[in-house]
TrEMBL record:
Ranges where the record places region Disordered: 1-25
Biased composition (Basic and acidic residues): 1-15
Keywords attached to this entry: Cell cycle, Cell division, Cyclin
Protein name, entry field: Cyclin-like domain-containing protein
Positions of transmembrane segments: none
PROSITE patterns: CYCLINS (PS00292)
C-alpha cells in the first residue's frame, strides 16, 4: 500500500512536469506576458476570442410596447449616425493649439464640473461639444478656454435642473 501511494505521487509529479492538461495547478502570468498579449491584441496581431453576445432584448420579446422586431434596424441607424457625425482627428488642422492644451482644458472642465457638483453627463457632453467645435473651426490659444466655458454652459443647460449662470463661469475662469 505504501508503494502504491509512492507511485501515485510520482505519477502526479510526472504529470505536472510534463504539462499534462489534467494539471490542476493554476497558471501564473507574468506582467510581461500580460502586457505583450495586450499589445498584440491592441495592434491587431492577435485576435480576442469572440464571447457569446447576450441578447438584452430577449426579456422583452413578449412585450408589444418594446417593439423588439425593430431593434436591429435601430442599432444599424445609430451605428451609421455615429460614423457620419463622429469627431475626426482635428488636431492637425489646429495651428494655434495642440493636444496638451486640449488636455489642460479637459482637466479644467472636470475641475469646474466638480466645483459646481454637476452631473457626470454634463462634463461628457461639454467635452463632446468642445471636440465638435474644434473639428469645425480653427481656434486661437486665447479663445480655447472660452470654447470650454461655452460648452460647459450649453451642456449644463441641457443636462442640469439648475444650471450655473454665465457669471459663475466668468468668476471661475482664469
Amino acid at each position: 500500500e505504501e508503494e502504491a501511494s509512492h507511485n501515485e505521487k510520482l505519477d502526479e509529479k510526472k504529470r505536472i512536469l510534463s504539462g499534462n492538461k489534467n494539471n490542476k495547478k493554476k497558471r501564473v502570468h507574468s506582467l510581461t506576458s500580460v502586457l505583450t498579449a495586450r499589445s498584440k491584441l491592441a495592434c491587431g496581431v492577435a485576435t480576442k476570442p469572440r464571447e457569446q453576445i447576450v441578447n438584452i432584448d430577449a426579456a422583452d420579446a413578449d412585450n408589444e410596447l418594446a417593439v423588439v422586431e425593430y431593434v436591429e434596424e435601430i442599432y444599424k441607424f445609430y451605428k451609421l449616425a455615429e460614423e457620419e457625425h463622429g469627431v475626426f482627428d482635428y488636431m492637425p488642422s489646429q495651428s494655434h493649439i495642440n493636444e496638451k492644451m486640449r488636455m489642460i482644458l479637459v482637466d479644467w472642465l472636470i475641475e469646474v464640473h466638480n466645483k459646481f457638483e454637476l452631473l457626470p453627463e454634463t462634463v461628457y457632453l461639454a467635452i463632446d461639444l468642445v471636440d465638435r467645435y474644434l473639428s469645425k473651426k480653427v481656434v486661437s490659444r486665447r479663445e480655447l478656454q472660452l470654447v470650454g466655458i461655452a460648452s460647459m454652459l450649453l451642456a449644463s443647460k441641457y443636462e442640469e435642473i439648475w444650471a450655473p449662470e454665465v457669471n459663475d463661469f466668468i468668476c471661475i475662469s482664469d
